[in-house]
């Protein structure tokens, strides 16, 4: 019955259902609106009849599941490299001893003194076989040099160490009542190695707690309440007009504007107290009903309208009820909802007022509304929108279109035809929407604030000081995102902003822009040595890059015909490398992951960290070396897919600067110590072979050989690697630049590894020859033994 | 009597658990009841209050981590700050202490008397040269030596071998531990490790088998003191020269009397002049596998140049040591070492509180101590040079 549309295409579904009434099957077509995906909530109805169509591994969710690849830390990689070195040492030791054995045995009196003769079979055995067995015997003898138990200890250290992160009281958030969650213990030390931080904006840098700030109708600004010295005056919940009083025409627009905002949304009123999603009390005293919506912006808007005197009450029998300023209930019949999608970036409703007039109200991003507007005070609204965007507010534009009955008939026709179409339904619907949402009359704009998270700026500053490059990846528009970046000190006033946006690439070709930017950056860096004398030069070198999704995809697009497409990527990376902060706006979720992947694959192979709170950050979190989820408002997907989850963005500072630092130091010492102690242990055995005729005589008792790694030496270093604090926690937090000391796996470089190995060999020699001379032909006990 | 039995019942029940209020317990008056009451009226309310408080806190933030020094990584720690003011005096102190210990050890070691007598007979002028030819059997030779001063007792006599690899792995495992533990089954079929010293040419099992036992050192010594031109034998004590564990735990004679019966159908090791049960026929506890000389030999030396305890001089007038004078050492020379360029020697030594003569430890202490002092002087110079101008 179900047509095999590719199961991983989430947005499309087609099928037929045959209903048997009597003997005649009645065939009905099914489309995506008949499909309930996992996690859907039942609204407005008590029950529905349903048929399960995909189950188990066939569900779209399972098919879309990106298998979590094993993340390995840099420490583990260097551990493996060291192991190879030790294997070589082991083999060379065995080879040296085998060779020396046969040199030594060339004298028959040494090979076979009268007191130790060989059996006949031993004598007749071929020399190669003897040499090989000797080699193997030496391998067995020296195999303890490979620290097998290190893996056990390292795993234990990581596992136990992760508890300290969960136990950290400073990473506990009282507001959410949540503490840090560690989903994997493999990456503790990687937190100390991060070079690139990719952060989401909404919900991560900001609180995702939308607050309606103002609206603007034809250039007249309305603020829902007076704010005095940061305190809300509850009594002044009227409309404050900042600009001139409106004329009668404006008055009409104003009424329409408020109704538009009250009607043009998909907010539901929930009467119960326990609801999933976003909760907000409608009435201050009664917390019995809430506005819920998939988008917190809409809730903020509807709430803002309530404060301005227009309360959206409920949707009943296709009638939307509004309580207006005069406490009268106005009823509008909801005829059509042209739902929001990320391509159009707007939504519309068609309503019939109680007087019978038909309206289309449209609300959307300014870029998608302005081109469709035919009248209205575009200039004033545009100015206000831009002003608000610079302030870091999220803006939406509202427009309307009065419809005659005839026009409405056309609309209905268009929509029904599009929806009935089996093939290319989505495309037709989009076309229909496009036709309907035109000739709009601009009403005004709204501004919603998404406040920065507590200490977000401080955290970003610390990360900068710690030498990390912070990239903000957001779906927001450039101006809003840039304002947030300034507020969070990602960009400072001194930062020179390089723009790589569609606006610029429209003027020049992408090629030219890229080359120009790279020249700017590189020229400056070329001239650096001369500038270093001036104290301000370090400030001046700060570059910030802003790039938008469209340009980015142009940069990354692998085009066959152009041989220098790879060059674009290279140049872009070169620019990025020289920028301390990068802002990527208008990003699709997949693009976020692409960026992370691109940086990961660049030639230095930097360690990346992605932090986000929503489902759209999951791909990025999975892609980065370390994925951190914020326990935000947009569900738990990010938390579930992350390696670590923290309640707030500010906790990232302690996570990286303190825990990451400690665990890197601890584990690197642990690893080095393990190699050291095994050299120390086994090298005397090697030396002893020179004194026992290379006969593979073990120096230690078997029990001692077995227990050395397991019990004698593992516990002290385990405790050390859990407790060591070479620098106080407070100092680490105060001085983020200390983080730079440990970047690039600096404690596990070859020189340091060699140092430990040489130290091990030295200690082994001291111990062996110390004992050799100490016990050389002397008496230890009082009875002469 | 009746009340007594009731009391007993009460005690019995009480042991099982305080919560049980059996008849017996109720009948028993006094202490137990008061304890019961206390537990009811004093402990429980406090417990309840604590529980309630904990519960209240948990209700507020069930997820809140414990705020303890351990979980918050605030355990007290001590980290020395190595400043010049601490390090330089520290080095001087450590250096002086090491030098002191080193001097003490060195002087002690120097006072230990050691007399080594090489009797290999490698050179024609040696008194034992005549015996060094392996073809000569039952050779006897005599070495004379002179002591200028009293050789303080207790004096230990060691025999030493050089270039002798008792630590060869194959050689070392060439024995049958079960056999040496007195297991008669292995007398008939020695373990394969013993080969080629498991069976003789007539396929008779060798007991004790193996290269280690076969090569047992079999030179014997007699020491004479020359008193007024006549020889007077110095009594040598052969008891207690082996490890206690070897004699009492690891090695054991088969449970047969006389011991010779156990060795029926076996032959002695090829190089041995007499069988294991004939090692010391005078003392049952020094015969067979628990013969002290045998045990000393079987305890392998770690290095190719080694010495093993042979006898002690503890008896009679020699308790205080060997008086000055001339001595004569009679050696029955059976053991040949020249084929592998080895040497044999007899060592007379006494000990101090730190053991036998060993200069190494004292020298090591002296070297480390002086290095510390020198380093502290160097640091002082560096400190003076770079620190003080800064203050100006």
From TrEMBL, chain A:
The cross-references to Gene3D superfamilies, in alphabetical order and at most eight, read: Calcium-transporting ATPase, cytoplasmic domain N, Calcium-transporting ATPase, cytoplasmic transduction domain A, Calcium-transporting ATPase, transmembrane domain, HAD superfamily/HAD-like
Reaction(s) catalysed (UniProt annotation): ATP + H2O + phospholipidSide 1 = ADP + phosphate + phospholipidSide 2
Q: How does it sit in the membrane?
A: Multi-pass membrane protein
Record flagged with keyword Membrane:
yes
Which InterPro entries does the entry mention? ATPase_P-typ_cyto_dom_N (IPR023299), ATPase_P-typ_P_site (IPR018303), ATPase_P-typ_TM_dom_sf (IPR023298), HAD-like_sf (IPR036412), HAD_sf (IPR023214), P-type_ATPase_IV (IPR006539), P_typ_ATPase (IPR001757), P_typ_ATPase_c (IPR032630)
Domain P-type ATPase C-terminal, residue spans: 639-783
Cell compartment(s), UniProt: Membrane
User: Known PROSITE patterns for this protein?
Assistant: ATPASE_E1_E2
Q: Where are the transmembrane segments?
A: 81-104, 135-154, 753-775
Report the EC number(s), separated by commas if there are several.
7.6.2.1
| Keywords from the named record | ATP-binding, Magnesium, Membrane, Metal-binding, Nucleotide-binding, Translocase, Transmembrane, Transmembrane helix
Q: Which cofactor does it need?
A: Mg(2+)
Spell out the PANTHER family in the cross-references: PHOSPHOLIPID-TRANSPORTING ATPASE IH, PROBABLE PHOSPHOLIPID-TRANSPORTING ATPASE
The family line of this record is: Belongs to the cation transport ATPase (P-type) (TC 3.A.3) family. Type IV subfamily.
What is the protein name for this chain? Phospholipid-transporting ATPase
Lineage of the organism: Eukaryota, Metazoa, Chordata, Craniata, Vertebrata
Gene name linked to the record: ATP11A_2
TrEMBL record, chain B:
Major localisation: membrane
Localization of this protein: Membrane
User: Region entry Disordered: which residue ranges?
Assistant: 1-22
Which InterPro entries does the UniProt entry name for this protein?
A: CDC50/LEM3_fam (IPR005045)
List keywords of the entry alphabetically. Membrane, Transmembrane, Transmembrane helix
Q: Tell me where the transmembrane regions lie.
A: 81-107, 360-384
Record-stated family: Belongs to the CDC50/LEM3 family.
Q: What is the protein's given name? A: Cell cycle control protein
